[in-house]
């Protein structure tokens, strides 16, 4: 397991360098522009994730719930931002894929919550005809 982890940690930057060199031979200076713009987009994503996390947590706490989905969404966005900052096309492709894939949906509880006159009424119901 350790050998596999070391191989991935050493192999990924080598793969990125190889792809960057091959693309720069083909496309020229456009690859440098891609890397710089991707890094700027990554920094913007990380800043956006911070504000989104605070807003989602505040909304969840106002409803009386702690939102794990807000944390997982922000973690995905931060990871994608870090991958965009890392120079390379392969990491950018992984980051874009991570951003475009739908996240896991966390099911809400099946009970119904309603407030009537300040009192909280919880329960389940079935419709019958």
Give a structural overview.
The structure is a single chain. The chain is mainly α and 129 residues long. It has a domain at 28-105. It is built from 4 helices and 2 strands, in the order ααααββ. The chain has a two-stranded antiparallel sheet. Strand 1 (112-116) and strand 2 form a beta hairpin. It is elongated, with a radius of gyration of 22 Å. Mean pLDDT is 82; it is low at 109-114.
How many helices does DSSP assign?
Answer: 4
Mean pLDDT: 82
Query: Spans of 5+ residues with little confidence (pLDDT < 50)?
Result: 109-114
Q: Topology as H/E string?
A: HHHHEE
Major beta sheet summary = 2 strands, antiparallel
What's the alpha carbon Rg, rounded to whole Å? 22 Å
Q: Strands of the biggest beta sheet: in what spatial order?
A: 1-2
Strand content: 5-15%
Outline type = elongated
Query: Structural class, please?
Result: mainly alpha
Helix percentage:
55-70%
DSSP strand count: 2
Distance separating the two termini: 59 Å
Summarize the structure.
By secondary structure, the chain is mainly alpha-helical. 69% of the residues lie in helices and 8% in strands.
């Amino acid at each position: 397991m350790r050998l596999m982890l070391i191989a991935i940690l050493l192999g990924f930057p080598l793969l990125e360098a190889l792809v960057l060199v091959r693309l720069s031979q083909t496309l020229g200076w456009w690859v440098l522009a891609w890397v710089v713009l991707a890094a700027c987009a990554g920094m913007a994503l990380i800043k956006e994730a911070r504000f989104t996390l605070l807003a989602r947590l505040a909304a969840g706490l106002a409803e009386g719930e702690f939102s794990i989905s807000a944390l997982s969404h922000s973690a995905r966005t931060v990871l994608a931002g870090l991958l965009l900052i890392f120079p390379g096309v392969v990491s950018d492709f992984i980051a874009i894929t991570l951003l475009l894939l739908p996240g896991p949906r966390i099911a809400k509880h099946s009970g119904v919550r309603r407030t009537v006159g300040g009192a909280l009424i919880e329960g389940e119901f079935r419709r019958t005809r």
